[in-house]
């Protein structure tokens, strides 16, 4: 009996992200916090990734160093939606709760959660903190 390798079906890749609601091509996306289960599997994946990196590391080299493990408040998942099932731009600019069901036909163009407030972008210290002194006659 031979053990010839069997052909493996190649998964068909779509040409990009698709709408979470209807599966059409996605045109918009926003961020949502991970639900407990999603976060748990994200953590498991990260642990696995680190364990593998340690296994594969060159023993002549120092052990690979990793940062702290991901925290629920620093992780988000991207939600995609098509042109018909998009939420508002304003809403899409914010991070949604883990429980958010958007895009959900009942709530569009809104959603059923109160998204987190947008954190203001960090001011560029190189620009804002330098007191510029102009030469006489330039002000
Ligand atoms: Zn859709
Ligand atoms: Zn939401």
Tell me about this structure.
There is one protein chain. This protein has 139 residues and is an alpha+beta fold. It folds into two domains: 59 residues, no CATH class; 39 residues, no CATH class. Helix content is 21%, strand content 9%. It contains three helices and two strands. It has a two-stranded antiparallel ribbon. The chain binds zinc ion (2 copies).
**Which band does the percent of strand residues land in?**
5-15%
Number of strands: 2
Low-confidence stretches: none
Q: How many individual domains?
A: 2
N-to-C CA distance? 90 Å
Structural class: alpha+beta
- Order of H and E elements: EHEHH
Oligomer: single chain
What is Rg?
23 Å
> Largest sheet at a glance?
2 strands, antiparallel
Q: Helix fraction?
A: 10-25%
Biggest sheet strand order reads 1-2
Describe the SSE topology.
Elements: E1 28-33, H1 36-56, E2 76-81, H2 89-92, H3 125-128
One zinc ion binds next to loops.
Could you name the key traits of this structure?
3 helices; 2 domains; alpha+beta; single chain; two-stranded antiparallel sheet; 139 residues; binds zinc ion; 2 strands
What is this structure, in a nutshell?
Helices cover 21% and strands 9% of the residues.
């Amino acid at each position: 009996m031979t053990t010839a390798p069997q052909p493996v079906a190649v998964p068909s890749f779509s040409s990009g992200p698709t709408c979470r609601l209807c599966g059409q091509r996605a045109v918009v996306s926003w961020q949502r916090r991970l639900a407990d289960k999603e976060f748990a599997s994200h953590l498991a994946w990260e642990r696995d990734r680190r364990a593998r990196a340690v296994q594969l590391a060159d023993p002549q080299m120092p052990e690979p160093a990793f940062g702290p493990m991901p925290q629920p408040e620093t992780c988000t998942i991207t939600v995609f939606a098509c042109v018909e099932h998009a939420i508002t731009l304003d809403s899409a600019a914010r991070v949604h709760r883990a429980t958010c069901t958007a895009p959900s036909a009942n709530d569009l163009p809104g959603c059923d959660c109160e998204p987190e407030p947008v954190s203001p972008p960090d001011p560029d210290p190189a620009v804002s903190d330098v007191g510029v002194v102009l030469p006489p006659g330039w002000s």
